[in-house]
Amino acid sequence: MSDATFLTQDAYDRLAAELEELSTTGREEIAKRIEAAREEGDLRENGGYHAAKDEQGKQEARIRTLQALLKDAVVGEAPELNGTVQSGTVVTAEVLGDEERFLLGSREIAGGTDLDVYSEKSPLGAAILGLKEGEETSYEAPNGKKIPVKVIRVESFEG
Predict the structure, then answer these.
(1) Which of 20, 70, 75, 84 has the smallest count of CB within 10 Å of its CB?
(2) DSSP codes joined into one string, 132-150
(3) Residue 93 β-bridge partners
(4) What is the sign, positive or negative, of the torsion defined by CA atoms of 78, 84, 85, 87?
């Protein structure tokens, strides 16, 4: 389960609907655009054809991403609040002396919120995962510098 991502039911439903849309209507629309561009003639100099093929590649990559995410997702309610940092919680922490508020988990769970998102596997996420409010730690930044962190508050994410 190390690759599992926590998703609320709302986030799971939203992503499943996006996958369904891309896999059906989205693929049909792209195929029609590619066919229409093909009918215009010489494909080597056909900007519409190349743009549609590029969009098709991006769409297929998104479909694969969503399939993998939803396949391994752990779906449930937001974690119960017990003051402990866990996947799917909103954390307020003092990082290098500055207060930051962010979601710990997947960008996919954040949806349209303006919260910054850190993965549990990121240096910051891994360092604070399991800490309680008031606890301090540090993590090593990519440049090798030790970054001090203090967990101030842990909240449930309802997005």
Answers:
(1) 20
(2) BTT-EEEEE-TTS-EEEEE
(3) 100, 151
(4) negative
